[in-house]
Structure formats: C-alpha cells, structure tokens
User: What shape does this take?
Amino acid sequence: MSDDHDDSPIAARVRELEAVLEEKGLLDPRELDQVLEAFAHRASPANGFRVAARAWVDPGYKARLLENANEALPELGLSMGGGLQVQRLHVVENTEDVHNVIVCTLCSCYPLSLLGPSPTWYKSPAYRSRVVSHPREVLEQFGLTLPETTRIEVWDANAESRYMVLPRRPEGTEDLTEAELAARVTRNGLIGTAAV
Amino acid sequence: MPRTNDVGGQDGFGPVVEELDEPPFHADWEAHVMAMNRALIGQGVYNLDEFRDAVERTMSHESSYYENWFRAIGTLLKERGVV
Assistant: This one.
C-alpha cells in the first residue's frame, strides 16, 4: 500500500494530508501498513461462516449464541473487539416462518470482525432507505423470493449494537462436516440478502 | 429535522446495485483514508463518535463512502486547528 501511483485528484489530496500529518508526528507511514494488514487479517467473513456452521452442528452452542453472542464468540476464538470499540452482537435466527435481514439506516454499522469489510451496496442509500420500508422488494433484487407466509424482520444496527443472521441450514447436508458446512455459508446469507 | 444520512424509509434512491467479487477497497487512497482515520483516533485527535458526527453533518449522497470519510477527517482537523 505504500507505493501509491493513483493519480486521481482525491488520491493526491490524501497523500498531501498524509505528508502534513507525518510532519506533525500524528501519522507514522509504517503504521498504515500495519493497520491495513491487521484489518485484512482479522476481519474476514470466514469467521462468520465458522460461527454459523458451529451453531448448525451444536444445538448447545446455538442456544448460547442466540442468548448472548458476545459470550459465545470466544468459544471459537472470536470477539467483537476487532475494531475501535467492542460492540454488542445479537445473532438472529432464520426459521421456516421468519427471515431476518440486517441494515444500518444511519450509515454503515456492520459486524466487521465476523463478515469482513462491508460491500458498497450495504453502505448505499438505495439499500439503507428501502430495505426497512420494502424488504420483500429489496430481497427480490438480490434474487431471493420468500413465500408470502414468511415474516421478514429487519434489524437496524447502530454504533453500539450489531446484528448477524444465522441462516437456515441447507437441506440434505446431514452428512457434511462442520468445515464443509462452513464452506456453504455466504456473506450475504449472514446479512440476510440470500438464503444458504 | 433528520440529518442527510438518516435515509431509512425515504424514496428516490433507486434500485440496489450489487457489485460481484467486490474488493475491500476500490483504490489505494480509500485504504489510506481508513488507516489515517484509525491513526488519528488512536492518537486522540478526535474520537469515534466525533468522527461519526462529522461524517453525518458533512456527508453528501453525491460522494462515495470514503470521499465522505475524507471530507469528515478534513473538517475535524480544521476545526481542531491541526491543519
């Protein structure tokens, strides 16, 4: 990341500001690479995939996860403390009758440490404005058509509280190992804009 | 009156567009803006809530996500007399 040859106007302005902050001792150029490496290493959707797979194979873990996710995450070596502050996590379970989907209408709150960096569409006003008022229509834009009888619950995250969806375990996966199940989970499944 | 960022339930933003295989950052400068913000919060130049507030009061729907971040950082640094 140190060798930045982007010649767009904003890239130049970012470099200019970095130079000023480095001169003032507020920014260490080596720190940038460290921050980015730590960010890329710790925040991965593979973490969320593991959580879902464990919940599917271990009913006791699932119960603890739904009851208090912050206490259940350390059982898998995970936490919600990867960012600048620790957030409360609430895991919401999809069932035959209820489908959950997460959003942050104010900005971009997201369980980063479990899902990795959020996609641009999650941060877009198009998604944030619409999924709370017309969730069924938005899910259809993602190719997810739910039966009329399925109730949709939309969870609006904020600075202190984050949500993650526990998707329904796919049918016919009784013989799969936990690792194989984890490989079936998708990021959008954990957001609620896809089934798994 | 709600701030510009408070879009829940509003109409007129069009369909959701999903980019397949989207990278975490679309350009190096975006990653640099994210890292710069972490460093400045880490140094105590401002805190996370002040940053959120700055994004909310300076953001534009015409700008990209990290453009809005960069504008908020610049605003906070000016207000604190750092630059």
Q: What stands out?
A: Chain B has a mean pLDDT of 92. Helices of chain B lie at 28-42, 48-58, 65-79. Residues 38 and 48 of chain B are 9 Å apart (CA to CA). Chain B touches chain A through 48 residues (CB under 8 Å).
